[in-house]
Write a structure and sequence with these properties.
4 strands, about 230 residues, single chain, FAD/NAD(P)-binding domain, binds iron/sulfur cluster
């Protein structure tokens, strides 16, 4: 890994972050901290802009995003930014570092309550940032687990389940509550939630498939996701 870290030029303009990363992760700074073997600092810097580094490091389209904008990529191979991000999260996990100890928790909105409907990647990310600002957050999830497509939609070899589990646990440790087996329209009523919460964030995903209207669609062995 040290060779991969050393390969970064530490560009002041950091196009990898400013142009390539939708979250604007401070890539040269996290690489610098990791190079100095300061994983806590690297994880702290990362946690300012993302709460899913172990996941994004594995499944983001790096070639199009950060690595696609890396100066090193102009004449050769770009810096392995995705791999480095995943490495930092894995090392942080190994060292027992927790998100709650690596973010600055604020009390700014401590009187506020927010309901999040759907505990997939959008829901858990929103929950983390709200909790970070002192908001009392409850996630309502229709399944008996969190993670959504991170759990059922990405195979183990691309995204190991223990990484998803650890990420979720670290987010819950920020003080996020969860109510499982709650489906909007069945167990939950928006009007009632509106009375109880200051805001509602709906992140149920769009996971019912559409009919393609192509030949063979109704053959035996062809399934649609319901
Ligand atoms: S553009 Fe590439 S070389 Fe420059 S700071 Fe970003 S990762 Fe490092």
């Amino acid at each position: 890994m040290i060779e991969k870290l050393d390969y970064c030029l530490g560009c002041v303009a950091k196009p990898c972050a400013n142009k390539g990363c939708p979250l604007e992760n401070n890539i040269p700074q996290i690489i610098k901290a990791a190079k100095e073997e300061n994983i806590k600092e690297a994880y702290e810097i990362l946690s300012k802009t993302t709460v899913l580094p172990g996941i994004c490091g594995r499944v983001c389209p790096h070639k199009k995003q950060c690595e696609g904008s890396c100066v090193r990529g102009i004449k050769g191979e770009p810096v392995s930014i995705g791999e480095i991000e995943a490495y930092i999260f894995d090392k942080a996990m190994e060292q027992g570092l927790k998100l709650k100890d690596c973010i600055e928790k604020k009390e700014k909105y401590k009187e506020k309550k927010v309901a999040i409907i759907g505990g997939g990647p959008a829901g858990i990310t929103a929950a983390a940032y709200l909790a970070k600002n002192g908001v009392a957050v409850t996630i309502y999830e229709r399944k008996n687990y969190l993670g959504g497509l991170l759990v059922y939609g990405i195979p183990e070899f691309r995204l190991p389940k223990n990484i998803v589990e650890e990420t979720i646990n670290q987010i819950l440790e920020l003080g996020v509550k969860v109510e499982y087996n709650k489906t909007l329209g069945k167990d939950l009523n928006l009007q009632e939630l509106k009375q109880k919460y200051d805001a509602i964030f709906i992140s149920v995903g769009a996971n019912n498939s559409n009919k393609l209207n192509v030949e063979g669609e109704t053959l035996e062995g062809v399934y649609r996701r319901k």
